[in-house]
UniProtKB/TrEMBL annotation:
Belongs to the ABC transporter superfamily. Its main location: membrane. This is Amino acid ABC transporter ATP-binding protein. SMART domains: AAA. InterPro entries: AAA+_ATPase, ABC_ATPase_HisP-typ, ABC_transporter-like_ATP-bd, ABC_transporter-like_CS, MetN_ABC_transporter-like, P-loop_NTPase. PROSITE patterns: ABC_TRANSPORTER_1, ABC_TRANSPORTER_2. It comes from Niallia oryzisoli. Residues 2-236 form the ABC transporter domain.
Amino acid sequence: MISCKNVVKTFNDLEVLKGIDLDVAAGEVVVIIGPSGSGKSTFLRCMNYLETPNNGTITINGKVIEPKEASLNQLRQEIGMVFQQFNLFPHMTVMGNVIEAPVLLKKMTKDQAKAKGMELLQKVGLAEKANEYPNRLSGGQKQRVAIARALAMEPKIMLFDEPTSALDPELVGEVLSVMKQLAKEGMTMVVVTHEMGFAKEVADRVIFMDGGYIVEEGTPEEIFERPTHERTKEFLGHLK
Ligand code: ADP
Ligand code: MG
């Protein structure tokens, strides 16, 4: 579903991604862990060309990404993204947020989009908040709306960049459980997170990034129980 080959990204003189290879199969859940500044967000952003890699190729669903505007719009319809900061439109209701993109880009009627939107809000447990404004929601609720909004475009892939890092601890679980459900339903997911419990339970594969490289990857068991690289051991050691 996703194939990244030798992805390199530099900002001015700073080489942030130093040649990353990663293949993600359909239905696979890949969790990326690693210290702050190791390039995790940049790598996710390269996958849907929010950042343009300086080198390398990214293939989505068999198609090599060409950075032309039309094909990027198509690409972003196929890849949903959820950020640490929820980025909801504050002047729109929850339902308004969810139906904005499908009405604009998928040429759905408002009624069609609303029906679909209500299904999605039910899925994330927020049907009763459809007419609220974002500032009346908790962080966990906002993030669940952000997930519903991304799903409204019917993406084939979902990218999550530290979706629970901005939340109070007691709100983390409700967001993770929505993500778990999504994984169970077979969504292809790449998740940057510090939630090691989630990684252990849900990931098919865990990637450890450091200094712009993939240092080590394996099953959750391999990475958490038997890491082989010193840097992985050190990083996991700090979390205990
Ligand atoms: P992580 O998500 O692992 O914390 P990032 O991908 O956000 O790491 O950042 C990796 C490095 O790239 C950091 O040194 C960061 O300062 C730098 N960086 C990220 N985005 C930009 C940007 N738009 N311009 C310049 N430097 C950036
Ligand atoms: Mg980051």
